[in-house]
User: What shape does this take?
Amino acid sequence: MRRAQSNGSMVTIRDVAKESGFSSTTVSIVLNDAPLARYIPPATKKKIERAAEKLGYRPNQFARSLRSKRSHTVGVMVFDMTDPYCTLVLRGIENSLYQASYLPILTDVHNERSRFERYLEMLLDRRIEGLVVLANWLFLDINLLADLEESSIPTALIGCELKGESVSSVIVDNEVGGYLALDHLHSLGHRKIAFIRGPKTLADSAPRWRGIRNYAKKHGLELDSHLIVDLPESRDPLSSFEAGQKLTEDLIKQKRPFTALLAFDDMTAFGAIRALSKAGLHVPEHCSVIGFDDVAPSTFYTPPLTTVRQPMEAMGNSAASIVLEGIKSVLEKREVTAQHGRVAPELVVRESTRSLP
Amino acid sequence: MRRAQSNGSMVTIRDVAKESGFSSTTVSIVLNDAPLARYIPPATKKKIERAAEKLGYRPNQFARSLRSKRSHTVGVMVFDMTDPYCTLVLRGIENSLYQASYLPILTDVHNERSRFERYLEMLLDRRIEGLVVLANWLFLDINLLADLEESSIPTALIGCELKGESVSSVIVDNEVGGYLALDHLHSLGHRKIAFIRGPKTLADSAPRWRGIRNYAKKHGLELDSHLIVDLPESRDPLSSFEAGQKLTEDLIKQKRPFTALLAFDDMTAFGAIRALSKAGLHVPEHCSVIGFDDVAPSTFYTPPLTTVRQPMEAMGNSAASIVLEGIKSVLEKREVTAQHGRVAPELVVRESTRSLP
DNA sequence: TCCCGAAGTTCGATTTAAATG
DNA sequence: GCATTTAAATCGAACTTCGGG
Assistant: This one.
């Protein structure tokens, strides 16, 4: 198991050849169990394996990669590591890659274009075999595709979608999610509901709202436009907490009563709860609050947050699997066509919502 | 900027040589600005650079690495990605590496020994130049050192310490932290204080408690042993939330009054707040709560948590810098001696504590 | 033809030693 | 010897080709 040779004095395939008394060719064939290994008698194999074991031989990946043009590495680009949304998704990605013996190179773009470009160059230079991008928004003119498309590196986006057949994606069904959220509130008897919508330029915002409107129309629920506010454009997760708080304060000041609040996402919901709480309004006694995402803190928040869960780990898993599948495809020179997955969200009822008496 | 050649048909240094009319040797010298480049006339350089630019030449890292034996890669091992403690530390690491043009390979050990070993092998095979390990505990018999020490790969631990001169470490000064926490509570007038201590086997637990005891002794504060409880052994961050809740419930049931609670860490504090809240006790009106770590949710918790901050980003930064420095040292064949950093924690006063009337 | 093994080439960049004028 | 350039060796593994039994 352990390296026998100390220090960096690597033992090469030639050393194993010498030790075992065979040529390096034979050693290579045996150790890789290459097709030709069929012809090699067990006795020879044993000797070679023993020699390798004895010397603690480990093939040099650089040499291997140089020859095979494969890195066994996948790039993972996160737009903002700080976003609590990342954690579980990353775990999902990691898990898939681990199963396949791939290693992830993690890059955090800090929502900066320059960093994005620099990292992309670096990853391409490392000859990553695939790329997973974790982002809920993208730089407007996405000529990132330029590099990617021609490089024929299987790529999957998590959290936003890019129509076309070159880049795969995995997203939640936001429309269903919005529908579920309002359904929950409505079923609990809430009729005066405040809404904090997502930033206009965020791709998630529109479909989520559409789901909400669909539900409302279907059930004859009137949405009071005075109770509908929008999150500003910022990309920073903490700022959506602050904005959520601020907007809720404004909502409260209006004196237009509401018994429930539907927040764009969990961070916003946390902000709302804070504002409510500061105003002496208890959640859920005085006002129910529902979020979206089910980030980790939602479980241990006080009160625990009712929310619409994105199956984040599964999404990470799925994206990595798509990329891995793509890699296999290009290896076998099969057609690689982008997958567009849309996973179902799930209502998680906890204690921040309650039915109206 | 962009790759001119499409597809994977790489342009090699020989292509540049042909295009420019010089040998590949000269091209290499010029493009790397090697010492010999002094002798090469500007005109030649220009031509070569232009040719490289025109063809969109990018050196093959595999070949480069094979020759130089360097990967420009650092391994990052996280014991549990799910721990909210990770996020900011990772960002710190990432930032340092980025400055130095190193790329991190991220591995998540899931607190499993087998995964740890497998990943370590993989990283070593990739010839990582350095290793950063993010863990608040280690497998008991740490023969991981066996592999590491002999491989002479600069390694830094974040969150726990390993005496000796082979592995560096960066930890908070837990003793000072414990002291600060109690100081805060005491200064606010609290005398009846409950304590949830860390698991016995966790290295952080003892020094944190020592700091607390020191403060108590120094200020003649008596600690009521009925109000001191211990977290069980689990390694899972969520379980420390649950345990925090459970223990606090027990504490409350005892009917032994306390006006403040000092939790081992933020997760535990969240659990305590939940228990208090369920019992109808408001934080901080009825009971102050202080945590330790200052993980991200502490800011946006309701109430925002007063806590003792570990400067996590700085710690990640520092660990990566130590490793980077170590890499430089081995390159220059200087002596590499482990650094043991102990950074100062900082009291962050928010709204989960208040002064007694 | 089947089995076994080896010599030699290749991957792409760096570097040493040496060759020009 | 100097400035300028390059052929050839090297890094380590994998694969192609070939020869002997």
About this structure: Chain A touches chain B through 62 residues (CB under 8 Å). Residues 22-26, 29, 36, 38-41, 44, 63, 65-69 of chain A lie near DNA strand C (CB under 10 Å from a C1'). Chain A has a mean pLDDT of 92. The CA atoms of residues 63 and 69 of chain A lie 10 Å apart.
